[in-house]
Amino acid sequence: MALLSDRYKNDGIATIDLSDIQRKYIDIFRKKCKTGEYKFRKCECECGNGDFEVIAEKDRYGLPVTTVICRNCGLIMTNPCLDDASNSAFYDNEYHYIYRAEENPSEEKFFGRKSDAVNFIIPFIQNHGGPKCGTVLEIGCADGGNVAAFAECGYTASGIDLSHKYVEYGKGKGLDLYCNDSSSFAENNRKYDLIVINHVLEHFTDLEKELSTIKSLMAPEGYLFVGVPGVKDLTFGAYNGDFLRMLQNAHIFNFTKNSLCTVMNRYGFSCNFCTERIRGLFKIDSSSPSFKNEYEDTMRYLKKVEVAAGDILALIIARATDKLASYNPGEVILYGTTAELSALTQLISDLSPIRGFFYSEKKKPEDIITYIKSLIPSQLPKCLMLIDNGNDSELKEQFTREDLAGGIEVFSIYSELT
């Protein structure tokens, strides 16, 4: 056994600050596990191999959770995990109290989800080939904040969730919500142009079964939006850049972009577009699955993150600041996600070298290449700085393959971190 560091030992100490509500329901959860009311089962890796290495013995709440990485493929998962019956009971009884630190749904959380859908999820889907109208089903909709956003944007939107309390809250706002699991709901034989599973896939105890059910709910040319926490999003401050804060007993899987795409491909989906954040858009595809063993790469990454835990954002800002300092005013173009560009520019004191911004949610690499080629030599930028976590190496390759006369430097602030 090779834990990432001594911080990951099972000492019962939480890594995050806990509210009284969280402590109360964590204690209830512990007792149910101790008495056997909640049962656990051992898991196999999605690649079919059982060669696991233990990297953590506890989660962010101090609960005894064993996190492993598969040496055969690099997928990170909780093993053992709750069995199906215990998992369903946990979500209906304790989950929302532990994870959302609240006893009841709230307007603040509802409108927070709605805002995220309007500003990020829906633009992502529409800008990467997804439907701009039609029928939408969100699996794991909670209070229906996302469903409300889709409805207001012209979609016919519905949602399902395992929490009676949260479903009733959303139904009280006039939303088409159901307290149901996906398998039972699929018996209605309805088909949807878009399925949304936002921060849900990592909770599934049986990916093959759930993804098969999701395929049965999709129209033949339908799309699946997947949002999950991205391991390599730690690089830009997710979970304060601390992998231990990312670990949670309800999260069965922890994905990188590549490990997610490999799993999705294995179960009959192809990727339209995906980032390390992770937001991804998928379609049904029965072609031969691809495979890449990410074990070595992921372990190197996690060890680098562990060394820099808590200081990753400072390290990135320092790299960006040093690079900008080597250019004159107006010589640099930034290309990256809205969130990362916003965080970066708020923390850099001298923005004078920056000529402009391109947001990756709205502009594809070829759009930027076309723009640069349209400039006369005297107007060409000197540096194109890539700030798109996890996709920067691919973007860099695409930019450098193009004939961008003028010797423009393509610089990724993540290149030494991932």
The CATH superfamily of the largest domain bears the name Vaccinia Virus protein VP39
Termini gap: 24 Å
Strand order of the largest sheet: 8-7-6-9-10-13-12
List low-confidence stretches. Answer: none
What is the strand tally?
17
Number of helices: 15
Query: Domains counted in the coordinates: how many?
Result: 3
* General shape: globular
CATH class category of the largest domain: Alpha Beta
Q: What percentage of amino acids are in beta strands?
A: 15-25%
Q: Would you tell me the overall average pLDDT?
A: 88
Rg measurement, Å: 22 Å
**Structural class from helices and strands?**
alpha/beta
Quaternary state of this entry equals single chain
Determine the fraction of residues in helical runs and give it as a percent range: 25-40%
Brief characterization of the structure:
By secondary structure, the protein is an alpha/beta fold. It contains 15 helices and 17 strands.
Write the layout of secondary structure elements.
Blueprint: H1 20-35, E1 40-41, E2 52-56, E3 67-70, E4 76-78, E5 81-82, H2 84-93, H3 95-99, H4 107-127, E6 135-139, H5 145-152, E7 156-161, H6 164-171, E8 176-179, H7 182-186, E9 192-198, H8 207-217, E10 218-227, H9 243-246, E11 253-254, H10 257-266, E12 269-274, E13 279-284, H11 295-307, H12 312-325, E14 332-336, H13 338-347, E15 354-359, H14 365-374, E16 383-387, H15 392-401, E17 409-412
Parallel strand pairs: 6-7, 6-9, 7-8, 9-10, 14-15, 14-16, 16-17
Antiparallel strand pairs: 1-5, 2-3, 3-4, 4-11, 10-13, 12-13
Helix pairs in contact: 4-5
